[in-house]
Amino acid sequence: MTLQERLNQYMEKYCLSGAEAARRIGTHPSQVSQIRLRNVYTPALAEKIYKAFGDEFREYFEYEKCPYCGSEYLPRDERQKTCLSDECVKKHRAEVVKEYERKVNSGEHVMRTYNERRPKKKKYLVLEDVKPPVTFTEFNERARSQGLSYGQLQGLERLGLR
Question: What is the pTM of this model?
Answer without folding.
Answer: 0.51
